[in-house]
Write a structure and sequence with these properties.
heterodimer; A: about 60 residues; mainly alpha; 3 helices; B: about 0% strand; flat
């Protein structure tokens, strides 16, 4: 009984921990991909130009 | 867990960027440089052909490929440009690796090189192959629809393919499989904003670029997935070792 209770607490704790990890990683990942692939700022576009073309992000 | 995910994504993004940057320098950057020669020629011809050239913004090339004085910043040709290409590949690779890690954790898949490879191929299908079916990888100087419309279609296609693959591969019952297939096909039935314009760029060059671009994307994603699975275990062992010492 106590073992299952401990397991449950551990699962809940790791569930909230993994939710936090998912949210942080997803937001950070989207931010980085947006910056390299979509950001309209001309300097960013020019810096990432060849990468954008090769990775088939719509360019220009 | 957050630190472990971020660390694994950094390692995976870095390794994938090293491989993909090398492939880009060898296979696609030379084609981009060749295409820019045609693009500049076309821009010059357009300005010679029309007496009102000064009033007209060239359809494509004039914006940021010409080397005018009032030009926006761009990396100098040669090493600087290659360095920025490498940097962009690194940032993009880490970004993709983070999304891959988040997806794996959200779907409760224990990362391993095998699972990582499967997710990497799914990533390739979502952001490389599916959008490329409608909007093939383009060289500079090829005519195309307005940028905003193409970006919207690209994003819609990537998202629809991702949700579709989830319904097919994870949910895996007849109803969701049918729904997933419909979702994957939907953007293509709607139709991509693809236009064909006259261009002096040899078609063979564009075809070679499209094939190489997709090949590099596949390798990029495969390495991201494999390396993420490997790095996840690497950082897990360290975490465990630290805990047992404490």
């Amino acid at each position: 009984m106590s073992t299952s209770a401990t397991l449950q607490t551990a699962t809940t704790a790791s569930a909230s921990e993994s939710t936090r990890a998912i949210v942080i990683a997803a937001l950070l990942g989207l931010g980085l991909v947006f910056m390299t692939g979509f950001a309209p700022a001309m300097a960013l576009h020019n810096a990432a130009h060849d990468f954008r073309h090769t990775q088939n992000f719509p360019c220009h | 867990m957050t630190i472990r995910l971020l660390s694994a994504a950094l390692v995976a993004g870095f390794l994938a960027a090293v491989v993909a940057t090398g492939l880009q320098f060898a296979l696609t950057s030379p084609l981009i440089l060749k295409a820019e020669v045609y693009e500049e020629q076309a821009a010059k011809q357009a300005s010679l052909a029309s007496p009102f050239a000064g009033l007209i913004v060239p359809a494509h090339g004039g914006e940021h490929h010409e080397h005018g004085a009032a030009e926006e910043w761009q990396p100098a040709p040669g090493v600087e440009r290659m360095a920025y290409t490498g940097l962009a590949t690194l940032v993009g690779g880490v970004g993709y690796a983070l999304l891959l890690g988040a997806a794996m954790l959200a779907l409760r898949r224990q990362p391993s090189p095998e699972i990582g490879l499967a997710f990497g191929i799914a990533g390739f299908l979502c952001v490389a192959l599916a959008p490329a079916m409608g909007l093939p990888p383009e060289l500079p100087g090829m005519g195309s629809a307005p940028l905003g419309i193409r970006q919207a279609w690209w994003l819609m296609t990537a998202l629809a393919t991702a949700v579709g693959l989830y319904l097919i591969a994870v949910r895996r019952v007849p109803l969701t499989i049918a729904g997933g297939l419909a979702l994957i096909m939907a953007p293509h039935l709607v139709g991509a904003p693809f236009v064909v314009e006259e261009s002096r760029l040899p078609a063979a060059l564009a075809a070679q670029f499209a094939a190489r671009s997709l090949g590099i994307s596949l390798v990029f994603w495969a390495v991201i997935g494999l390396a993420y699975g490997w790095a996840w275990h690497l950082f897990g062992e360290r975490e465990a070792a630290r805990r047992s010492h404490a």
